[in-house]
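Render Anaerobic carbon monoxide dehydrogenase catalytic beta subunit in 3D.
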Amino acid sequence: PKAPRGICGADAHAIAARNYVRSIAAGTSSHSDHAREILHVLKAASADGNYQIRDEIKLIKLATEWGVKTDGRDIYDIAHDVADVGLLEFGKPDGFQLFIRRATDERQKLWEKEGIQPRAIDREVVTAMHMTHMGNTSDAEALVRQGLRMSLANGWGGSMIGTEITDILFGTPTVWTTEGNLGVLEKDMVNVVVHGHDPAFSEMLVTACEDRELIEYARSKGSKGINVVGLCCTANEVAMRHGVRMAGNFLQQENVVLTGAVEMMCVDTQCIFPALATLAQCFHTKFVTSSPIARIPGSEYVEFKPETALQQAKDLVREAIDNYQNRDESKLYIPPTKQTATVGYPTEQIIKHLDNVTNSHVDEIGSYRPVIDAVRSGVLRGAVAIVGRNNPRVRPDYSHMEIMKELIANDILIVATGCAAQMATKAGLLNKEAKCICGEGLKRVCELVD
């Protein structure tokens, strides 16, 4: 039989907990570092620069929440001070994450009681790495508690900061009807794919693809124009702000190149297969990396910088257009499969839709009250979030899809993002017609809100 402990005396619980906490540290680092980068973009924003403030109302609201003075000040001075406060959330020496004050009093008291209120984001990651280093914590419960604390620093720190600042810079999403799956690629257009997680990069590429001069240049090369599509979380970002169509999720990224129709795939960070560089060489596709965080051998590396972002994007799109003539028709096949989807539901849009079913004479507007009442009365049985990647260990998308279908059939509302949202798109579950497979309660809610 296997020994109950390792040579150092650590048992299976300690070993598993150490590995688990280190996985949380990697995830927290990735998502929170995304927020750090977008804060630096906000810090560099200016009225005549590549990046401007698109949602001034949300900026003022956040500035007030964080104690930044706003009266009589230039909007960009306010933005730069907000960026400084946000950046301090990563390394401030004292106190807890500012956004945990958004949680309910009950939840905050629980975190305080359990000693897991999240401090500075970087501190929680460093603490976790120190605890899991050789010769330190072997108490599984203490390790899991640090994992919880670090997760809260990510969710109520990095992830929430990233969402708020992205909306301020690029606009709070609105509802769009778009399409998803490989069929969104176009045979007679220059296809540019944006892939990864960083909207600062993809926003500039989408802007460049809409440039009139570049569209005319694409037509001069024999195409009908430029078709920009998204992969993974970048797909979500550009879909809910521009209506850009989604080519697929995590396990579909290689399939996009396999169509032979992609002139250029531009990637930033996270969820990018190293195999794409080798695969692209089998076709005419140019594979471009843009971040020092995600360097991949065999790619064309163009480090994206805020001060030159738009010009860099235009140069890349022009390069993609020039590559259109290098397509090999014998390798070209675009599956016709695609589904329509309605996307773009931040909290503001959800409340706006709910206001349409509220009796303004007697009920509170500008709140989630209609949904809460529907849950309280039993019309809906609750809500769940489904996020994240599909897995090559199981049939692609199968688990996500079956779980979603079962939940909505039982009147449970789903909030989907990440690759789960693209899976739902491909399965037709983000189409309003999907109400026909919902339970009677959720179906009725869909009809009222529509």
